[in-house]
Write a structure and sequence with these properties.
Blueprint: E1 5-10, H1 17-31, E2 35-40, H2 46-52, E3 57-60, H3 70-87, E4 91-95, H4 97-109, E5 114-119, H5 129-143, E6 148-151, H6 154-162, E7 171-173, H7 181-184, H8 192-196, E8 207-211, H9 220-233, E9 238-242, H10 248-258, E10 264-268, H11 273-279, E11 282-285, H12 294-301, E12 306-309, E13 324-327, H13 332-344, H14 346-358, H15 366-388
Helix pairs in contact: 1-15, 3-4, 4-5, 9-10, 9-13
Length: 389
């Protein structure tokens, strides 16, 4: 395939799963010789920029904001139209809900030859009726302008098709890849006692790890409300929460209300999550909606069983009762029961751990992500060549 100029557009450039996916894609495409530009909105982590600026071009559009804001949104469309016309890319590849709407509209009006949207999550699931209607209407309208969708799971593909967004022909499943060796070969951090709040002469307690941004849809507060039941049975257990985000004050307050300051530890951003997985006995995710959670892949890559709420496509990575347990997303008491079942039954725990170690996660490598995205772009090129022949 000829070398392309690809512009990726993302609403927020923070330390979370979709951002990691986008950055891995950008760096992989740049390594293949493509010219790559990353456009991001007002919310961004400057530390990311320092690691990227020598390999890809960066453009900040400050009017691109996460909340629905008609004034900023119209301004963002206009600014990106001007930017796309100046850059003249072959493909604009959008990510996240707001950038997906604003970016695709701007790319269409700027007459960009190829418009691709990455489906990392279905924004119309598990929201109120007004938001659901808004998201569905916007996604269906933008689907008419979209040449291809890149879905992080088959579950996301089926969710979008069932909602009448896109067609079977233009939805392509490409799993969200990552550097797997950072998890398969990791050792626990040397300062694990400090992280877990354990005395120097105390044995290692049972450790449950939740790698997740601190935002409402991850449901840390709801988890903390039921975690007391687990502490009653296992007083020394630790729940390590690694991640940062806007819900931090609410999560801290929930911990204080539950009296779980000793048992629930907020680690903030950790630069080596693979080491945390190596430390943990069990990994956990309680999201109300996801695409296909990268942290679940990371846990299995590290050979640790997972307990995860049922989200679209989760069965593509977790086999219930083999490598982990899938729980009712509407009932976190079910998650609490699952944790108790696993921690109280050494035979069940070993079975799940053996299943986690045996799970082949090679389809979620960074290389597979870049290769799969290349195939989608090649399909677009072939389609255009056929249309002009």
């Amino acid at each position: 395939m000829a070398k392309l100029h690809v512009v990726h557009v993302i609403t927020r450039l923070l330390r979370a799963g979709s951002e990691e996916n986008v950055i891995a894609t950008c760096l992989g495409q740049a390594a293949l010789g493509h010219r790559v530009t990353l456009v991001f909105g007002r919310e961004h982590d400057p530390a990311y920029l320092d690691t990227l600026s020598d390999r890809i071009s960066l453009e900040c559009v400050k009017s691109l904001v996460h909340p629905v804001d008609p004034i900023h949104d119209i301004r963002a469309v206009r600014e990106m139209m001007r930017l796309f016309r100046a850059l003249a890319p072959d493909i604009v590849h959008t990510h996240q809900s707001k950038a997906g709407i604003v970016g695709r509209l701007a790319a269409y009006r700027a007459k960009v030859p190829g418009i691709v949207h990455g489906v990392h999550i279905a924004p119309f699931l598990n929201v109120g009726p007004s938001k659901r209607y808004l998201y569905l209407t916007a996604e269906r309208m933008m689907a008419r302008l979209t040449d291809a969708f890149v879905d992080v799971s088959g579950g996301m593909r089926e969710t979008y098709l069932a909602a009448g967004i896109g067609t079977a022909a233009n939805h392509h499943v490409v799993y969200s890849g990552m550097p797997l060796k950072a998890f398969t070969e990791a050792a626990p951090p040397q300062n694990w006692r400090e992280l877990a709040g354990v005395a120097a002469d105390a044995p290692k307690p049972p450790i449950v790890l939740m790698l997740a941004a601190l935002e409402p849809r991850k449901r840390h507060c709801e988890l903390i409300r039921v975690f007391g039941r687990i502490v009653d049975r296992f007083p020394e257990i630790r729940l390590l929460c690694a991640g940062e985000g806007p819900a931090l004050p609410d999560v801290e307050a929930a911990i204080r209300r539950a009296g779980l300051e000793k048992n629930v530890r907020l680690l903030g951003f950790h630069p080596e999550p693979g080491r945390l997985v190596a430390l943990a006995d069990l990994c956990l995710l309680t999201s109300m909606r996801e695409g296909l959670p990268r942290v679940v892949v990371q846990a299995l890559a590290g050979g640790k069983p997972v307990i995860v709420t049922r989200v679209a496509g989760i069965e593509e990575i977790v086999e219930h009762g083999v490598s982990g347990l899938i729980t009712d997303p509407d009932d976190l008491e079910d998650t609490a029961r699952a944790i108790l079942d696993v921690m109280a039954d050494p035979v069940l725990y070993q079975k799940l751990r053996d299943g986690a170690k045996a799970r082949d996660v090679s389809g979620w490598s960074s290389e597979a992500l870049v290769e799969g995205t290349e195939k989608v772009y090649a399909t677009l090129a072939d389609r255009r060549a056929t249309a002009t022949a």
